[in-house]
Each structure stands twice: as structure tokens, then as C-alpha cells.
Amino acid sequence: MSLEQERAKERIAAELDIGRRRSIGLTLEALDESDLLAQHSPLMSPLVWDLAHIGNYEEQWLLRAAGGRAALRPDIDGLYDAFENARADRVALPLLRPDEARAYNARVRREVLDTLEGADLSARPTVPAQGGPAERSLLDAGFVFHMVIQHEHMHDETMLATHQLRQGAPVLLEEAPAPETTGPPVPAEVAVPAGPFTLGTDDDPWSFDNERPGRTVDLPAYLIDTFPVTNAAYREFVDDGGYRDPRWWSTAGWEWKSARKAVAPAFWSAENGHWTRRRFGRREVVPPDEPVQHVSFHEAEAYARWAGKRLPTEAEWEKAARYDPATGRSHRFPWGDAEPEAHHANLGQRRLAPDPVGTHPGGASPLGVQQLIGDVWEWTSTTFHGYPGFHAFPYREYSEVFFDDGYKVLRGGSWATHPTAVRSTFRNWDHPIRRQIFSGFRCARDADRP
Known about the structure:
Shape: globular
Structural class: alpha+beta
Helix content: 25-40%
CATH topology of the largest domain: paralog of FGE (formylglycine-generating enzyme)
CATH architecture of the largest domain: Alpha-Beta Complex
Strand content: 5-15%
Largest sheet: 4 strands, mixed
Number of helices: 9
Order of helices and strands: HHHHHEEEEHHEEEHHEEEEE
Distance between the termini: 60 Å
Strand order of the largest sheet: 10-9-8-11
């Protein structure tokens, strides 16, 4: 085995362990059996479903598909198929109980580590004899292991959303925030010059099919907010009657707002002239300088229209995040190609909230846009679709089945997103009505508009 493969396998094993410890901390170590089996919201699965689904997905892809091993528990595949069972229905399934899920996941992991030891991670894409795009291999640069690592972290973030919806006393420890590092004052907007840049990627080993293929996109000049919209800024919209004025809302947005009787972001309450929020069982005054979160696409769009702006397209967001005008390159992250560190971005559940704007100047893009990675997922105006030349890999249900069905693209990750599960090309998507997710936004406007 080459030294490169040995190091890659050590990294994979370490990342698998990090994900599992995080999953256990959000489930078995946080709540009793009744809470794990309960459905805390029809929007979310019982937490015990997520826990066993993580193990079942890992078994199917790392033991069966990549390792060629026989199924350990084929009898439970149907229970943990996310496409066969709607979230609201999963509580009625004969799910593994918490102790059974723990034992099953541990068994899967033991066999996965054995499979990893003998895996050949040097497999490379093959070019079909008849021409066309190269076919990726599951083991190409360890892709299938990266896919499973990211999948577990995605479910960990989903489990955090379930914790937020859960009623009752706090169970997640609130860590002290790191000392703030605030940069010098910066303009409220950044001008992005007209011209081409590379959207997407062809070679990132952690990338999913919907991030590929990379291609050149030419955009006109525009301006984009330096920071995500803050709670204080969003409150101005609320206090100005933004939720009572249909001028700012699309038809679908106004219908949703009216049916939902929404008057502010999710979890906000007006108390004695102050806005408070419920955050993981804690009631607190809404911090003015944090990015607003738990807003739907419709709310983000209405705010942007009220402010005389609009939401950026996902191409505009990605150019602001990746493009270096000095070199013409598109970097993996706003700050370059180095993996995220604490001074770059608020990621990985280091604290249970976004950081105040301006606290991560080290994560700025070459154009000067800040906090593009971490803190809050940012809504864009783009409907989720495949890039030209898209090829589903390794299965259609990861992204292709969601294309062009009204889902809106979100970019950048949140404070709950693990660093291995986000990059400047990463595309998230959700229904425009969703706000239990850790979602916020920033605005943009055309360069020729005042």
C-alpha cells in the first residue's frame, strides 16, 4: 500500500469515528428511549430512525456495494429507505429500538473498518470506448467513503433540527463561544465584476453528482451583501409591517404566510416590546448582530424586495465565494483550498447558533465577501436542477429525482454543518416553505441599479 493510500485510509477512519461520536451524542447520550422513539414534529423522523438509517446506509454502500459483502440485515432495508417512507409515517414502523440500533451500527462499523483496510482507493474514472464522460468508480479517491461520511453528518444536522423542534428542557450542552475576532469596518456590499468564472467542479473527491461537471459561466456585474442579513436588519422589515404588506411577497409566498399566520421568523415571540427566540429549549432575547435564521425562501424573498434588492442566483453566490480576480481561479473555499479552521468559519456545532457578523474576517473571499461558509444556509433564487452534462452517480435518488420540482437551492452550510460536508460548490436544496432548517440569506442587486 502506498503512503498516500495509507494516509487517506487513516483520514477516512478518523472521519468515520468523528461522525459516529457526534451521532451518538445527539441521540443515545442526549435523550432517553421514549424521546428517541417519539416523533417531535411531523416534519422530522423519530431520532432513532435517523440513527439506524445511518448504519443501514453505511452497510449498503460500504459493505455491499463497495465491499462485495453479503447483507447483514436485509430485513430492515425497507424500514430505513428514505424514499419509501415519508417522515410523518416513520414513527409507526417497527423500528429498531435504541439499544438494537446501537448494536447494529457498531457491527456495521467493525466490518466497514475491515473492508477499508483492504480497499483499493487508487481506482480512477474510466472513459467509455464509445466516448462520452468518464465513469466514476465508487472507490475513486475514496469517494464512496467520503459519501458515507458526509451522509452521516447531514443526518446529524437533521437531528439538530429535530432537537430544535423538540419541546422540553435543554439537553444539548451550551458551549462558551470562542473569543470574537472582528475585522475592520467594511462596506455593506461588494461589487463583483462582470466576466467568466468556473462554476462547479470536475475533480473534487468529496463532490456529489449535482456539483458536476464544472463549466465556465459568464455573469454580468452585480453587487452582493458583504454579510448575511442580521436579526436587527430583519427586525426592521418586521417592525415596518413587512408581514402585513402583500407588495413584498410573491403570490405563493403570501399564501404561505397567510396560511401559516407567520409574523416573524420561526421560534420568535414578541414579549413586552422585545423579540425573543426559543433555541434548543432556552428562551432568550434575539441577538441583533447574528445572521437571521429559521426563515423560509418566501420570507427571504420578501425581505429582499422590501430592501430594494433581490436574492442572488446560485451562480452569483458561488462566484462571490470562489472567484479570485487576481488569478482567474475558482477556489474550493472562499479563503483558498485549505480545509476550514475555526478562524475561517463557524462550522461543526462548535456553538449552537450563528456567530455575529464580522467575526470571521479570515474566511473572506478574494472579493471581500464574508461568512459565506458556515453560520446559516443561504437561500438563492435558483430552482434546483442538474448542470448541463449532469450524470447521476452513484444513484438517482441522491439529487436527480429532486430536479426542477420547485426546490430552491441553498448554499454555504450552517453552524451545524460539519466541515467535511460543505464547500463552495456544495448544493443543498429544500422546499421554499421550510424554516426548521438553519437557513438565512444575503441580498444582491444588479450593478446598474441604485
